[in-house]
Amino acid sequence: MFDNYEVDGLFDEVFSSDGRPRKHYSPLLSRLKVLGQAAFEKRRRVTDVLFRNQGITFTVYSDTRGVEKIFPFDLVPRIVPADEWDLIERGLIQRITALNLFCQDIYHGQRILRERVIPPELIYGAKMFRREMFGVKVPRDIYIHICGTDLIRDKEGKYYVLEDNGRTPSGVSYVLENRAVMKRVFPSLFSAYRVRAIEDYPFNLLQCLKHIAPHHVDDAGIAILTPGIYNSAYFEHSFLARQMGVELVEGRDLVVDKGFLYMRTTAGLRRVDVLYRRVDDDFLDPLCFRPDSVLGVPGLMNVYRVGNLALANAVGTGVADDKAIYPYVPDMIKFYMGQDPILPNVKTYICANDSDRKYVLEHLDELVVKSTNESGGYGMLMGHQSTSEERKKFAEKIADDPRNFIAQPVIQLSQHPSLVDDHFEGRRVDLRPYIIHGQKVIVMPGGLTRVALRKGSLVVNSSQGGGSKDTWVLEDE
Amino acid sequence: MLARDADAMYWMARYVERAEHVARLLLVNSNLLIDVGDLAPALQARQWQSLLTILRSPELPDGPDLAQRVGQFLTVNADNPNSILNCLTRARENARGIRENISSEMWENLNTLYWSLRGDDAPGRFDESPDDLYRSVMTGSMLFQGLTDQTLAHDQRWLFTQLAKYLERTDVTCRVIQTKYDILKSNEQIFDSTLRNLHWMAVLRSCCSIEAYRRHYLGDMEPTRVAGFLILERSFPRSIRFSVSGALSAISAIRAGARGNAIDPTERILGRLDAQLEYAELGEILSEGIANYLQRIQTTVHEAAVAVQQSYFMH
Q1: Mean pLDDT throughout A158-183?
Q2: What is the mean pLDDT of residues A156-167?
Q3: Across the interface, do B104 and A242 touch by the CB < 8 Å criterion?
Q4: Residues A48-60, mean pLDDT to the nearest whole number
Q5: Are both B137 and B182 inside the same structural domain?
């Protein structure tokens, strides 16, 4: 199965450069060999049916027919040893703490701007900066309650933070479902390892939501706000509501009355105190943000501002995961916490800076250019794979609106074996762990390992044909 | 519970029940025609068209392959709102919107059933053996109802599924009896006793009632008794009286949970109907005419369905 497996000078998660398996992967490999290819293939078919029958799907917008798709699942698990995880966990806790201090500062005293650590024009130019939040006290001063941080490894295997998703990160339901399916299909593989459990994520999330409930409430009404069944992440919204036992509501189920938010039930109106909203800021309240939004609730922001409602994540956190502000996160960590960053950033050029922009325009063919407010792999240029035509177009876009672009060197992501037809081939992977900031900060031991299923591709987003695999974090020995 | 969720719960259950009825009608009809087809060829077309009447669909043009066309129309036709495929699609769409309200067992069962008709291999399975497909839909629906009873808390959510199921069952059962009775009445002279028995057995089978009836009347196929059994039998879950009474207890419990002692229009409508059935006498029904009587029940059930809509789903 591993004959002709190529490492190609990349960092391979399973094999070291001399072609020998890394220590923490050898039990897995020997079990796979015993199992044989036919049995493996059979299990792959079983998982496909399992995913379809359970309706574990996501929605692709460009596709007019059969909009529901199964998120391709790659059966070979990724294994992260305890010492590596320790570093990741400490780094992530440090990062979410700094990002929250940053949000609190930006919407109150703005010390970080006054002390010229971050140029103010970068903040005021950010699309996701919400003037409406200035001076608003949010429950427990937490802004980013749930964060999904994308990590990658370079050729040497060193971990970097590629981006922080501090608005409404998705994917955690696939992490939980992937694990459930793996246990069902490959129970024997688990016995060779002590894999840390991730099943308490919904419990931790619920605890976090209770923690931020308004003080005057004993038995908080908690709900998840979804844009509806046609949203790409609807499965996840429904999944989390089910796991936590809370209501899943749409904007049309909610109504504001005399400073409180209510949902329409068969027995009349019932108060909602905490909303885990999976609707973007822009659509939350047509009276405050986009007036054409039908996904939100008129008057919701007023309820929020007077403190009768808690939102997770808070409104305005987009300012912290803006890609042009990302390069300053290490500075934030130093500024607010007096510490050195545990997980480094990827070198980033901010097109709004004249010298950076000049460099970017001259080196377009070796950089990845990203729009600062897009996600899901939309609106980006992979310089080394682009045509001169595409580069020309992008250069114009950058010149038009430099604030909207950043550029990074192409990182050769680490690879991990995936089953392709009847043998294994290396495919690029990243890792998105999930962090919950409630009474304390909890990093889920695991995360979503996304796989670029096309050979040589560096783009792992599900909307661009990516898949995922189960991620095992091992207990300390 | 959310008004929107109650709405979806209700329609999910109604569509599953409807799919089951359509499948059973098709299965029973094709089996009946295997038995009696040669004996009364003229009736064949009429039998198939009557299925469309029961489901309130316009008749298809007579001609060759009528059986196949009706089967196709009622099973996989995408334009027929009452085809099994469409019923299950809508049931699943509703379920998909309320997955956090139903158990994962219910969802998986319904989703699997949906894919068995929607999947790439479904047309082949239909061509190969329509009967097997009908059976799998019936079993799927029964399993779904069992799971609903056994994996869902018997709270408001569950009550809405019960209400929906019994209203749908009352409605379809009324129309099955009405339509079949009509055919049999107008063809009485060409039926010998064998044919007549087979037909009444088919009516009972269409309502999943043949065994219960036989046990009750020791196998005697007397038309008025069959009608009486399907309308008035107190203890049989497929009879109209049982279904109305089930719908009434569901709506009473829903009202008590949501509104306390306030008067509920749906409950009033169903309560009156229930009382009427409780004290009904077969002779009176026959002298009014079964068709008329069943028509009145259908109108009342329709009023009840509208009332539920207004009191619980449209806040």
Answers
A1: 94
A2: 94
A3: yes
A4: 77
A5: no
Q: Quick one: average pLDDT of B134-141? A: 95
Which chain B residues touch A206 with a CB distance below 8 Å?
A: none
CB proximity under 8 Å: A 227-256 to B: 228-229, 234, 238-239, 241-242, 246-250, 252-253
In 3-state terms, what secondary structure has residue B134? helix
* Residues near B194 by beta carbon (within 8 Å), at least 6 away in sequence: B39
Q: How far apart are CA A327 and CA A331, in angstroms?
A: 8
How many distinct structural domains can be found in chain B?
2
Indicate the residue among B121, B152, B183 that finishes a domain. Answer: B152
Residue B308 pLDDT exceeds 50: yes
Instruction: Note whether B131 and B166 are same-domain residues.
Output: no
Distance between alpha carbon A324 and the CA centroid of its chain, in Å? 17
Residue B76 and residue B125: Cα distance in Å, rounded? 11
SS3 state at B252: helix
Q: Are A271 and A261 in contact (CB under 8 A)?
A: yes
List the domain range (segments joined by +) for residue B19. 1-152
Which distant-in-sequence residues (6+ apart) come within 8 Å of B28 by Cβ? B202, B205, B206
User: Cβ atoms within 10 A of the Cβ of A282, count?
Assistant: 16
* CB-based contact A378:A370 (threshold 8 Å): no
Find, in chain A, the residue whose alpha carbon is nearest to that of B260. A267
The CA distance from B249 to B252, in Å, is 5
**Maximum distance among all Cα pairs of chain A, rounded to whole angstroms:** 69
> Are A265 and B3 an interchain contact pair (Cβ–Cβ within 8 Å)?
yes
Which pair of tokens denotes residue A292? 């054409």
Q: Does B181 share its domain with B91?
A: no
Going by the DSSP 8-state scheme, the letter that residue B307 receives in this structure is H
Reply yes or no on whether the pLDDT at A465 is more than 90. no
* Domains in chain A, number: 2
Nearest to B174 by CA among B292, B84, B279: B292
B159 and B146 in a single domain? The answer is no
Do B206 and B64 have their domain in common?
no
Domain that holds residue A400: 349-409
Give yes or no: residues A224 and A299 share one domain.
yes
Tokens of A65: 């027919």
Whether the CB-CB separation of A250 and A225 falls below 8 Å is answered with: yes
* Mean pLDDT, range B28-34, rounded to an integer: 85
- Residue at a domain's end among B93, B123, B152: B152
Among A369, A394, A409, give the residue marking a domain's end. Answer: A409
Q: Tell me what percent of the residues of chain B surpass a pLDDT of 70.
A: 97
| Within a domain: A72 | no
Nearest chain A Cα distance for residue B110, angstroms:
9
What is the per-residue pLDDT across B89-99, written as a single tens digit (0 to 9) for each?
999 999 998 98
Residues A294 and A355 in one domain: no
Are B252 and B266 a contacting pair, CB within 8 Å? no
**ipTM for this model:** 0.72
Q: Which residues of A touch B257 (CB under 8 A)?
A: 267
- Percent above pLDDT 70 for chain A: 96
Identify which of B135, B22, B19, B8 has the alpha carbon closest to the alpha carbon of residue B71: B22
Statement to judge: residues B146 and B121 lie in one domain: yes
Distance, CA of A168 to CA of A434 (rounded, Å): 11
Contacts of A275 (CB under 8 A, 6+ apart): A222, A223, A224, A225, A261, A309, A310, A311, A312
Q: Are residues B180 and B131 in the same domain?
A: no
* Predicted confidence (pLDDT) per residue in B275-290, tens digit: 999 999 999 999 999 9
Q: What is the pLDDT of residue B221?
A: 80
Shared domain for B54 and B76, answered yes or no, is: yes
Residue A384 exposed, middle or buried by CB count within 10 Å (0-12, 13-18, 19+):
exposed
Give residues with Cβ within 8 angstroms of A45, minimum separation 6.
none
Predicted model pTM: 0.85
A53, A239, A263 ranked by CB distance to B2: nearest: A263
pLDDT: which is higher, B38 or A185: A185
- As a whole number of angstroms, the distance between CA A113 and CA A453 comes to 42
